[in-house]
Hints:
Helix content of chain B: 40-55%
Shape of chain B: globular
Oligomer: heterodimer
Order of helices and strands of chain B: HEHEHEHEHEHEHEHEEHHEHHHHH
Radius of gyration of chain A: 22 Å
Structural class of chain B: alpha/beta
Largest interface: A-B, 81 and 92 residues
Radius of gyration of chain B: 28 Å
Strand content of chain A: under 5%
Helix content of chain A: over 70%
Amino acid sequence: MILHVLSHPELLGLTILGVFLGITVGAIPGLTGAMLISLTVPLTFNMDSQSALTLLVGMYVGSVSGGLITATLLRMPGTPASIITTLDGYPMAQSGQAGKALALGIGASFFGGMLSWAALAGLAKPIASLSTSLGPFDYFALVLMAFVLVAGVSGSSLTRGMLSCCLGILCALPGTAPATGELRLTFGIDALADGIKPLTVLIGLFALSRVLAPESKVSSSAKVDDSMRIKWGVWKSQLGNLVRSSAIGTGVGILPGIGANIGSLIAYSTARSYSKIQEKYGKGCEEGIIASESANNATVGGALVPLIAIGIPGSVIDAILLGAFVIHGLQPGPMLFENDPQIVTTIISTYFWANIAMIGLMLLSIRWVARIASLPNHYLIPVIATFCVLGSFGLANRYFDVWVMIGFGVIGILFERWKIPLAPFVIGFILTPLAEESMITGLMGSGGSWAPLVSRPSSLVFLFVAVLLSAWSIRQQRQLLSNPAPQH
Amino acid sequence: MSLLLVDYRYRLLASAVALLTLLGCSEATEGPDMAYPRKPIKVIVPFSAGGGSDSFVRILQRAIREEGLLPHPLVVINVPGAGGAIGSRRVRNASPDGYTILCLHEGILTSKYSGRTPYGPEAFRAIAATGQSSLVICVREGSPFQTLSDLMETVANRPDEIRFGMAPGTPTQFVGRKFESSTKDRIIRFRNVASGGGAKRFNDLIGEHIDVTPFSLSEYSKFQASGIRALAFLGETRLSEMPTIPTAQEQGFDVVMQNIQYWWAPKSTPDAAIDRIARALEAALKTEFVEERFREMKIEPIFLRDDALQAHLVTREQFFQGAALVRYDHLPNLVPIVFFLISLFGGLSFWKSSTESSTPAPARNNEIWFRLAAPLGVMSVYVFVMQSFDLSYIIATAAFIPLLAIAIGARSKRDLIALTTMGICLGMACFVLFTKLLVIDLP
C-alpha cells in the first residue's frame, strides 16, 4: 500500500509538486490551502482521478505545513492552522533561534503526519465496512452531529456558529428539490435550476474574499541565521508531547467538519496543562511549537478518514476534496473501497510520501520560501483573481457561476466583518444535500415516521453526541464570558 | 487621498488598452457561404465529464475525428446540472446555425413529465437516435423473490410495503410507476423511496434499506459480483451477452425501459445541417472502434432518423405521459424551517453583539467598502465584457491584470509594465491551456 506511489513515477512527481505548491502558498499570509486547492480542482478536470487526488492531497499536506514558516519568522500565520505556532515560534525567532524554532516545527509536523498516516491506513477500511450498515436515518443524525460540532467550536459564539451553519444550509436549498424534482427558491432564474455549485462558493469564500480584503502586510526581514540542527535528546524528551499532540490532532481531524486550527489549539492547551514549565508557554517554548505543529499536521490524516470511509468531510479542505471526488465521478464512502480500491490505495500512499516530501522540501526551501512571502500584493492578487474567474467559469462553461463566485467573495468579506465563522457555513452548505437526501430516503422508506431516528442504535448515538457537544460548547462559552482567556 | 483617483497617465493607459480591445473585437468579416460545416460543431453534453453520457459522446467524437467523417471535429462541452436541464436549455436558446447541438438521452422526456422543464422534445429538432441501453430490475442476493412474478404477487398482497428504490425525475422513477400499472386487473403499489444514483441505490439495496431497484446495464455488470441478482431485463428481447436474464415482457409484464441517446439541434436548424450530422453519426456507428467500445459498455448500436425517429418519439411520449407521478406529502418542507432558524440565530447574535457594545469605529468601516469597490468593479467589468460582448479572453485578461493592480494600489511605472506583460503571457497561456487541453469554451 505504501509503495503504490513509488511505483508510478508520475504520481510521485505530482506529490512533490503538490507539496511544494502547498508549502509556498501556505507560507504566504493571506493565501490558504483551501484557496490553492479550490482553484486547482478545476484544473484537474482532464487528469485521471488518481493523478488529480495525488496532486490535491500533496497540496493539502504542504499547505498545512508551510504556514509555520511565516508564523515563526513574521508572526503572520500563513494559514489558520499555524495561528498557535506564532505564540512560541515568533518569540523564539526574535531571540535569534529562528532556525531552531523552524526545525522543531518541521520535525513535529513530520511526526504528527506520520502518526496520523498510521491512523488513516489502519482505520479507514474498518470504519468504511462499519458504515455500510449505516442507513439513511443514521446519515441524517451524523450530519446533524457534524453541524452542531462545527458550529460550537469554530467561532467565538455558538449562536453565530449556528447562524453561519443555517445560512450555509439556505444556500444549498435553491435548485431542484431532491424529493419531488421540482424547482425551489430559484426566483425564476433558469441558471439556478442546478443550485449553487459548491466550488463556486468555495472559490469565492476562500480565494476571492481573501485577496480582495487583504490584511495589511508588514514588510519585515525574515532571516534564519542559526543552525537548524536539533539534538536527538530534544526529540527524546519531547516524545510524550509529540505522541499526545499528534493523537489529539488525529482525533480532532476524524471528527467531522473541524480541522487543523482547532486541533492545534486543543493540543497546545493540553500540552500546557501537562507541562512543568507552564510559565514559559507563549514566550518561546519548544514544547508549544511541537504541540501546535504536530497536531495541525496530524489533523490532515485524521480528516481524510471520514472523507474516504463515510463520505463526510473531516475539515473544510476535505469539503473541497469531496467536490473533487464528485467531479471525477467517484463517490467517497464505503462504496469507494468496492468500486475504486485503487483510489483508496493512492490516497493513503500519497499521504505517506507527501509527508516525506514535506520534510525534505521544507528543509531545503525554507529560506527561499520566506522571501516569496514578502512578494507585493499587487502581483499576487490579479493572478489569483484571474484564476478565480477561470476556475469558476470552467466548472460548467457559464458566466452565471462566475457571478455567483464574485457574490460569495463579497459574502466572505461580510462574514469576516461581522465575525461570523466561515467553517460552519461551508460544512452546512456541503452536507445539506446529503442530510436532505438521507432524510427523504429515510422518511419514504419508513412511510413518514421519524421513529427510526431514535430507535436505530447508531443514529441515537449520533444524536446523543450532538446534544452532549452543544451542552459542552454552551458551558465553554459561559466560562469564557466569566473569565476571558488570555488573547492568543 | 482616495485610492480611486487614478493619475491621468494611467487613464491614458487604460483608454489605450480599451482601444486595443475594441480593435480585437472586430474580427475578420464572414466569408461567402461554404458547405456546412465551416467550423467545429459544439456538442453540449448536459452531464459532467467522465459520466456515461460523456464517454458515449466522446467515443463517437473520436470515431468521427479519426475517420474524417466531418471536415471539422466535434467539440464536446460539458454543461452539467439538474438532470440535463441546464445543458438542454442552453441549446434550446442557442442560435440555430447547426454549430451547437445537444446529446441527451431519455432524460429529455423524464424531465418534461416530472415537471423539471416546461419543454420536451418538441422544443428541438431531433437529429438522430444512436445507441440504446436498457434497465435491469435487481434485488439482493438473499431476497425471497426469485422471479418478477414472485415480486409482483407480494406487492399485490402487501401494498405500500415493498420498497422500490429510484432517483426522482429519471427513468428509474417511471419504471416503478409502469410496473404498478402493468397488472391488468388490479392496481398495485410499491413504497417508492427516493434513494439516488446507481452507487447509492446499490448501497441501500445491500444495506436492506430498499428491496428492489432498477440499474443500468453498465451499473449492473459492475455490481453483479457484489451481492445483487437480476429479476428482469427491460428490453424488448433478451440481451445476447446476458442470455439468462428474462425480459419483463416474457414474464407477463409489459414494461420496456430503453435508454436511448438522442441528438438534438435548436428548433429552426436548416435541413442540410441536420442531414450532415445524421450521416456522420450513422457512419461513425459502423466503425469498428465504436462497435467494440459499445460492446464493452453494453450499449446496443441502434440508429434512427427522420420519420422512424419521429414515430419512435411519439410512442415514448405516450409511454411517459401515462405514468403520472405520485406526490409525497408527508415530507417536511425545509425552506420555512431554515428561514425560521436563520432569523432565530440572527436575532440572537444581533442582540448579543449589541449588548456587548464592541462595535468597530465607523470611520474604518467606510474605508473598507471604499477599498473593496475598486477591485470589485474592475472584476465585474472584466467578466461583463467577456459575457456580453464576447471579447477575446486574451485581450480581456491582458487588460484586467494591470487594471486590477491599479485598483489595489500599484502605482510605479515599472510595476505596470511588468504587470501588463504578465497579463498578456498569463492570458495566452490560460487560453491555450483551457481551450485546447481542457476544452473550456472561452471567448
